[in-house]
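Technical note accompanying the year-one report. For the benefit of new consortium partners, we illustrate the data format agreed upon in the data management plan: each record pairs a sequence with a structure-token string. No post-processing was applied to the example shown here.
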Amino acid sequence: ENSDSFLLAVDTDWKEHDIETPYGLLHVVIRGSPKGNRPAILTYHDVGLNHKLCFNTFFNFEDMQEITKHFVVCHVDAPGQQVGASQFPQGYQFPSMEQLAAMLPSVVQHFGFKYVIGIGVGAGAYVLAKFALIFPDLVEGLVLMNIDPNGKGWIDWAATKVSAIHLEVFSQEELVSNTELVQSYRQQISNVVNQANLQLFWNMYNSRRDLDINRPGTVPNAKTLRCPVMLVVGDNAPAEDGVVECNSKLDPTTTTPKMADSGGLPQVTQPGKLTEAFKYFLQGMGYTVPSASMTRLARSRTASLTSASSVDGGRPQACTHSESSEGLGQVNHTMEVSC
């Protein structure tokens, strides 16, 4: 079941765009349009994946769909990593991690977003954290999965290839016990993502510098993430040490560490738990968000009250989604959904 959901890659109601940036074109897909003061949800995938392989299972989960009805969602593909991407020409210089972050304001400006809530995994989490450090006024919150804030010595792709990505993503337990998921992941890396382009992204990510963040008050003029942050890592995942270290470098009053019993791909293997954590994260930022179960209850209650009102001529008291969502995000960046 996990591998089936992982392979699910059918986008509905999404529009594709190629955005000009100072460092080349970015392929993005977007659903919805900005409304009021609500931020956009902007995602960035891990190396070896693209937005479909990384996020479809999570964003197709029923409760997550209820949440994202009230936000515009924008998935960003790293250069050349999208499905069907053309191979970069010989000698192409892949953008540095800092340049990947500096491409994102072009996306924000193109769609007229005021600010974003970023959701990133692995390399994508690093890019979004760098983006928030350089452009803090554009980022309202971050969900960073499997982030490693440390620089890395260059690893030769030719000597490691797909096996290295496995070791970077999956726990030893998953490599042994969840072979179906690992095999489907391997096939997708090999078949969906252009291998030459992937090699360029891999090499750049694995020659990255330290994120250079420090907990406020620990060093003079410490740089840190100023927005609320939720850190997510799977239990015994290879990224666990990096995420724990990242947590030690962030403001404890605005950082929420989340350990998921999910291995290396929490958004694939535990979308329900991750959605629940994301909902509480949004609530902590002042947004009231529905769950699918509450929405079903509201629909049932609205239907019964509508039926009753047709008898006594009164207007039903239950507030439907269309009524409650008209004023979303109009006051103090707070989203109210009455269920």
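Partners are asked to follow this layout when depositing records. The radius of gyration is 21 Å.
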